[in-house]
Sequence to fold (277 residues):
Amino acid sequence: MTTTPTSDGAILLLGAGRMGSALLHGWLAQGIPADAVTVLDPSPGPELQRLAAQSGLRLNPSEAGRADVLVVAVKPQAVEAVAPGIQAWLAPESLVVSIMAGKTLADLRRLFPAAGSFVRAMPNLPAAVGRGATVAVADPLCPPAHAERAGRLLGAVGALEWLAEEALMDVATAVSGSGPAYVFYLVECLTQVATEAGLPPDVAERLSRATVEGAGELMRATGLPAAELRANVTSPGGTTAAGLSVLTGGGRLHALLAATVLAATRRARELGGAPPA
Fold:
């Protein structure tokens, strides 16, 4: 069983959860033919099964084929069990791209010894709507053409930043990978305190959501630094300045975010099997 080659070769996606599915839809939207992709997933959902039936996407074939690119999107806790069954798909020319939190390039070389090139990456949840923020690092021996191939596949779901040092991956994961949850929680808190202050709950939620959505879009549209945008909306002695004085007083928000990112960084390392730093 083989897939149809494309400019990026035959692609094998291992795991089709939220992130794996986001990448898959990004590839198809980018113009990669469905029959160039094979998906291995033990519990494919109805949407994936329909896509496979309608598009020519190969889903859980009974025989191994050729994978020019293997994209590993399973949970890091599960990869040890499934990796041995993937070796038959790989060759020395194969590229492995991992989006597993905590799994290092050394882990990938050990898990997929039949492959020759490795890239470690971490997208985030907005990848599901094409607005992801992905960080990646390539193995030092990864050929430039393979890194470019990985970049095209990862860039199908949003912005991509390459890191020069793998040691920074866990920190980047804690910031951009986990960051959307921090923003969602901010909306939850704004909604709750606005309700407690007297606004109807539905109005409080709509205002909180629209405020965060609009602020993000303003950053994207203007390209201005966040500090400059903050200054633009903060009139001396005004209401915004009064509110910010509470958030920034004594460096409390900075300290809270620092502790948040540190906790997420430690957990990323633990998920990869490394002892906490």
